[in-house]
């Protein structure tokens, strides 16, 4: 990652006009920069707000609150200064022009402050990913899951796995190093059983990561049915705006239309699929094929029907928790035993959203702490190393040193998970998700 630390600055408060604008400066020249703007030394204790006047040469910039953070107690692990200005665009622009005039500092790029924190050991890589998810969280569920990574709770889980593996490794190496002293190794109790326990725990976390990814991307719900059954009207009602064309002409929806909506604190992607029917129209046929593909891959399907006797589209496989609705109850009598709905009047929509919310909630209960392929790959490699150790245990007399090496490799895989090993290639992808002020 390189050893040279640059001094960077950026606006760390929200966009647009506001009462207060916060500009953060972090790095070796942060204190020198603010002293130049103050025309004197700051001379305030760390973490205390002081009211001072900022100058750019002979031009008064603003009267601002200044807070200084010492190197070892700041978010970034570098000397940091926060300038709390009035939120005037003119003041902000003038202050940025002043800061840009300094030779030893530069505007921060996306995630630069967090990258400083990573380099200085204030955060590990999984916490950085959690912070990125927290910044981008759109729903309560996403916020809760992101906080698991950012708060460090997952780190404790990984450290627990590492501690168990280190204990196994120590027992194995003791039996190797002190073989002449007849130190017996309990293969079952000290090696195989704890390895199986760790593999089980990591495997559960791998499984839970897919549910986390689903919650972050959006639980997918496909509205399927024949032409002119009311799918587009229902979608418009669920999202509260007209996103689908509503028409009595069969085949109006030629493609899959997606809209994301917050239901019960969860991000839900709702798909209005093309009416499923046999057609000779080549454009409509493409739409039908895409609708079938999307419906079959979705987490939940809402089958919208005109009558209870109407058959499901033969190309769509019904799953256990799919929902069947009788449509257009505003213009026809209900059917006993079936949930009726009217996208036009809103009848039954609350009941439908509660059903969807409960099903997403079941996914949420299965969530782990990790959330992406990098995590799964690292955990998968650790499991593979431990499985290899179990294989070598079958002839422990010959393979004892191989077992020790397999355990060492599993430990390295877990360090990779937390970013303790230098993995430069993943940084660009992760930090591209940050805003400039973070």
Which characteristics define this entry?
438 residues; alpha/beta; Gyrase A, domain 2; Four Helix Bundle (Hemerythrin (Met), subunit A); Rossmann fold; 3 domains; six-stranded mixed sheet; 12 strands; 45% helix; 17% strand
Round the mean pLDDT to the nearest integer and report it: 83
Strand order of the largest sheet: 3-4-5-2-1-6
CATH C-level class of the largest domain is Alpha Beta
The low-confidence parts are: 244-254
Topology summary:
Layout: E1 7-11, E2 20-26, H1 30-38, E3 49-56, E4 59-69, E5 80-86, H2 89-100, E6 105-107, H3 112-119, H4 125-136, H5 140-150, H6 153-177, H7 187-217, E7 219-224, H8 231-239, E8 257-263, E9 266-272, H9 282-297, E10 300-305, E11 323-326, E12 339-340, H10 349-365, H11 373-392, H12 396-418, H13 427-431
Parallel strand pairs: 1-6, 7-9, 7-10, 10-11, 11-12
Antiparallel strand pairs: 1-2, 2-5, 3-4, 4-5, 8-9
Helix pairs in contact: 4-5, 6-7, 6-12, 7-11, 11-12
